[in-house]
Amino acid sequence: MPPNDSTAIHRWLKAQRSHAAAGLRLATWLGALGGTLAIAQAWLVAYVIDASVFRGSTFVELQPWLAILLPVLGLRFASTWGAEHQAFAAAQQIKQQVRRQLVAKLQSIGPLGLSDHSSGSVASSLIDGVEGLEGYYARYVPAAAIAGMVPLLLLLAIAPADWVSAVVLLITAPLIPVFMILIGKGAERANQRQWRELARMGGHFLDVLQGLVTLKVLNAGSRERQRIRHIADDFRRTTMGVLRVAFLSSAVLEFFAAISIAIIAVLIGFRLLDGDMAFFYGLFVLLLAPEFFLPLRNLGAHNHARMEAVGAAENIVNLLSLDADKADGASTEPPLTGDIRFDDVHFDYGKGRRALNGLSLTIAANAHTALVGRSGSGKSTLANLLLKFASAQSGDITIGNRSLNDIDQQAWHRQVAWIPQKPRLFAGSVADNIRLGCADASDADVVDAATRAQALGFIEQLPEGFDTHIGDGGRTLSGGQAQRLAIARALVRDCPIVILDEPTAHLDTVSEQAVQQALAVLIKDRTVVTIAHRLHTIRQADHVIVLQDGNVIESGSYTQLSSARGAFAELLAAAEEALT
Q: What percent helix, strand, coil does the chain show, rounded to 5?
């Protein structure tokens, strides 16, 4: 979607109402009831004052009318409170649904689809962006519906009492929505700029936090502080511009309403002096005149919430419109056995960045296949295609006799375990991290997986064992300990296919040995694909495939390739030279 396609944004905002349609309707009808009760309230107040001042009615005679007035006031308060409560509950439902949509979309897109989006801007959309929708659904949407109903009901009540005042209201009322339309476009653009600045600031701030160690070592902290100050100042100026428009528009709308009420008051006053109008009707109309403009004034006041939602929704709609990997097949389990074949697979990242160029290869079932090659040869792209983080742009990938495109992504992910160089551990207990991919795993399953992953020893030494909270990223654990937890996580899932991205790449010798022992348990009787960076770690692989420029240039066993004078032998020689 183009960044300034406001029509698509408005259409999307309107479509989200269906997630809480019943709640929004109830909020609208409760608000309309409150406006309708204003008629009864004005009539009773006007009657009591007219009867006591001009007709000499005693307090005892007016008690029945006062007894009716009190419940009307209470009911009006209750309906107003109920409308607001229901509107915010509906907005909460919509926010939850939008967050679910975003999370599902991000999961379906995968890391490759999000490569052009900063983590900060995505996080800003998920948190601040979704929160920015609340005012639109909780305040503006009910206010817009009430503004179309209540003034009309009040006009029908005023017209029989005083047609002159009804005409004045009919003429002046459209000034408020007309003025809202006139300022709307410019204000929307200002809000969109504000949310873009917020996404930019959030993205940059997150990048700085993630690179804090590097900035500190390079003495670049003060320079980054200046950049953050500059970005924050841009956001401040944009925000103040938006607020100026909001406050100015509210002031003008209040001015129009006040002038209209003043005109009605003057006209009624002159006719009361001339005796052309009864006091009861004059007071009744004067009491209803502010109530007539109240829904319109609320609509104008909450128009800022609409403009803020348009700005917030821009990034959300852009994320939701990203292409995701779609499968045409049903959500059935893929076959657990069968070779994985790449047949003339092409993939590029756009702008001439070709990653795979007619790749054809076979990954044998229940065997260990290692992928090697220089940086940029296509190893990581191949792994991303296997993980369905992206789809081949041409060619086909099959498992047994079935195309990967015909397998539902979630069903496929239930069959694949992925262990990267630096596994991601989340804030929570050790047990929670192990059962991350298998929530219903029993405590016995978790302990068994940790034992087979060579992790039980260090887990038992933690302060609370499996219940120890390890913090976001597992910073309290060593690299080898984190890898063994990742292997335990894969063992709990018991997937038939395992993809490894050199899980021992950043470990010392002792940790590497422990992880290799755990991996030996994990890969037994499974289809294993290893992206290898350190070639000595793949001596036990059944098959080695050498990639270059997105194609296979050599394949065979480790022994065959190392004794041949080919590309693999050159890689081995280069690795040995780097160690000397």
A: 65, 10, 25
